[in-house]
Amino acid sequence: MMSSMCHSLLILKRSCTRRRTQGFTLIELVMVLVLVGILSAVGIGLFSSPGGYSAGAARDQFVSSANLATKLAQSRSGSADTISLTIEEDASEWRFIVNPGQRTKSASRRNATLSSPLMTLNYETGGRLNPPQNRSFVFSANSDHRACVLASGFAYAGGCP
Hints:
9 strands, single chain, elongated, about 160 residues, alpha+beta
């Protein structure tokens, strides 16, 4: 009786160890499928509407160019040079040009629009906008991507106060 009990325990022990080494449980597989589904649903939006991505990228390029213009104006304190940021567009892209020096950054328009009229922002010595007022920009495609240039010259992604 003792030997049959040991034999039963030995078989039970082997089957328990075999279950652990044979693969994934059903719960693990379901969790992986759920996570892949969630990531696919979030990621498909970027691929189905590249215009929305273009508007966000254009906003980021604009903010970067505006901050570059501010830093150039701050670095030239005491100089008579005027620093400007000009926004231009054609059928396929926006161009953000910082003068002097023609430092140009561009961004694809791909079905995106800019709410503000094309313009030139002028920076005084010290980096402040001239005239000193906050400027709001909205790059739109499937969603709005806002940018703000404060009167102090600082630019950021988001709405103006």
